[in-house]
């Protein structure tokens, strides 16, 4: 990529929206200049972060799922089969009408999500209870004609990194357990990105079209708005009845299957970069950093000896599986620090003549800026142990920031004030009308009922004053 002529500086992260847009370009994550609204281009550096992040979720899914790939194009007759599902997507689905100059006899939908591509095949594949549970996933691009404000990594018309899992089970309860398993997997996935997420059961008016219920995980973005970064849906036997997915049970009866589906998109990258980044640019957890260590030779005399030492350290770290580079360009050290800090490299090693004399090197952490001299003899262990320290520190910091921005609220005015800064925990009687009134009066909607919180109090719904034992997360959302 063309080196930045002059060192572009980021605005303060206080001005999150501007920081986010500039970060994507300066840190070479996404080029937003592609001439189709809602479609963006991965720079290779951004794409290497995506590869490392998706390797983690593949590793978690591959324990008991299999990866595959279904066609992008869905014939109209299949897409239009599940009424509620269409209702949910009819304003968002893209259609292909022609092949070359020939009008197609059957319109083809670009998958907005793949239930209607996959389930006609599941009907052919699922015959007996011995075929269950069936757990497949794919990581593909999907297309949604979003009419709300599009945003790179956050709200796309072409979702480039849509991981969707689709499972088939013998009973409703087994599918319900799979939904819980999916949420546990997402919480673990985000923990590996050092991102704390809040699991909650979406209110009925906000569940996935065609689902019995939806559980989502939300993260908190620096501007106090939440981002839905994963969802898991219990589909009941709704789609099985529509697509005739049945299995022969042990008694030889034909039984409709029960299903789930659960997905994440490149929003996982959006929350990763936004949560940990700072005014100098990216701060990457070591496990997903394309470059984990950059070695900067400090050369003003004895260049040979310094460069030899740098190459020795690089070789030792590479042998330990560390992704390491030496920046021996002729730039001045300051502009090297700027570049690699912008790219979020977790650790910087500085080696100069004085270090050689002390048989030591300077180690600088990107997340805290802390610098420490360490003996060259133990540099590998010093680096590896700091990876774990950095990972824990990033998660601890993000978790503390989240927890201090969840506010117990009992009145609408309270909610209105607190959602400017984060998430309100609000009593709710369960009536949809109260939920929608709250949204209107407080300018923030019900995210859902926390699934990891034991409630033992009684409260009053702030709208109708009815007694209730339920509290919900309320927040401004992307
Ligand atoms: N326009 C979009 N841009 C980026 N990510 C999106 C967009 N729409 C949805 N997502 C992400 O994709 C996840 C799954 O999408 S979904 O509609 O909730 N669920 C499904 O499509 C189900 N078939 C499970 S894969 C959402 O939780 C959200 O994180
Ligand atoms: Zn109420």
From TrEMBL:
Every copy of the Aminoacyl-transfer RNA synthetases class-II family profile domain together lies at 38-285
A single Pfam family, by name?
ProRS-C_1
Tell me the GO BP annotations in alphabetical order: prolyl-tRNA aminoacylation
User: Which reactions fall under this protein's catalytic activity?
Assistant: tRNA(Pro) + L-proline + ATP = L-prolyl-tRNA(Pro) + AMP + diphosphate
Record EC number: 6.1.1.15
Q: What class of enzyme is it?
A: ligase
Fill in the domain comment: Consists of three domains: the N-terminal catalytic domain, the anticodon-binding domain and the C-terminal extension.
**Subunit-level organization:** Homodimer.
The entry assigns this protein to a family as follows:
Belongs to the class-II aminoacyl-tRNA synthetase family. ProS type 3 subfamily.
Q: What name is this protein filed under?
A: Proline--tRNA ligase
Gene name?
proS
């Amino acid at each position: 990529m063309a080196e930045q002529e002059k060192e572009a500086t980021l605005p303060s992260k206080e001005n999150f929206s501007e920081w986010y847009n500039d970060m994507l370009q300066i840190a070479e994550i996404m080029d937003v200049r592609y001439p189709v609204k809602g479609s963006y281009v991965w720079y290779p550096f951004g794409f290497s972060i995506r590869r490392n992040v998706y390797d983690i979720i593949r590793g978690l899914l591959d324990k008991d799922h299999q990866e595959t790939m279904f066609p992008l194009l869905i014939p109209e007759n299949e897409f239009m089969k599940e009424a509620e599902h269409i209702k949910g997507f009819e304003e968002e689905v893209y259609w292909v009408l022609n092949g070359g100059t020939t009008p197609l006899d059957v319109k083809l939908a670009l998958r907005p999500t793949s239930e209607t591509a996959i389930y006609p095949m599941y009907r052919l594949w699922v015959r007996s209870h011995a075929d269950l549970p069936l757990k497949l996933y794919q990581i593909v691009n999907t297309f949604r004609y979003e009419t709300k404000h599009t945003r790179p990594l956050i709200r796309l018309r072409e979702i480039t990194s849509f991981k969707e899992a689709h499972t088939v089970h013998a009973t409703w309860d087994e599918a319900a357990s799979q939904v819980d398993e999916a949420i546990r997997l997402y919480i673990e996935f985000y923990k590996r990105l050092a991102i704390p997420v809040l699991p909650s059961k979406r209110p009925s008016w906000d569940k996935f079209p065609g689902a019995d219920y939806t559980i989502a995980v939300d993260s908190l973005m620096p501007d106090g708005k939440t981002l839905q970064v994963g969802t898991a849906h219990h589909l009941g036997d709704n789609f099985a009845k529509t697509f005739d997915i049945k299995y022969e049970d042990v008694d030889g009866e034909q039984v409709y299957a029960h299903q789930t589906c659960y997905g994440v998109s490149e929003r996982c990258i959006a929350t990763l970069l936004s949560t940990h980044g700072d005014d100098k640019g990216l701060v990457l957890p070591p496990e997903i950093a394309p470059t984990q260590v950059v070695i900067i030779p400090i050369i003003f005399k004895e260049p040979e000896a310094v460069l030899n030492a740098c190459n020795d350290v690089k070789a030792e770290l590479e042998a330990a599986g560390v992704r390491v580079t030496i920046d021996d360009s002729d730039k001045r050290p300051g502009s090297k620090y700027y570049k690699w800090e912008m790219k979020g490299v977790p650790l910087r090693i500085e080696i100069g003549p004085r270090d050689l004399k002390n048989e030591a090197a300077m180690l600088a952490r990107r997340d805290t800026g802390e610098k420490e001299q360490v003996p060259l003899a133990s540099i590998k262990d010093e680096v590896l142990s700091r990876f774990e320290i950095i990972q824990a520190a990033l998660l601890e910091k993000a978790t503390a920031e989240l927890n201090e921005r969840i506010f117990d609220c009992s009145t609408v005015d309270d909610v209105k004030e607190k959602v400017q800064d984060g998430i309100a925990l609000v009593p709710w009687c369960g009536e949809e009308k109260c939920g929608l009134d709250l949204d209107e009066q407080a300018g923030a909607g019900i995210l859902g009922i926390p699934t990891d919180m034991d409630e033992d109090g009684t409260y009053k719904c702030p709208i109708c004053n009815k007694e209730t034992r339920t509290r919900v997360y309320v927040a401004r959302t992307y």
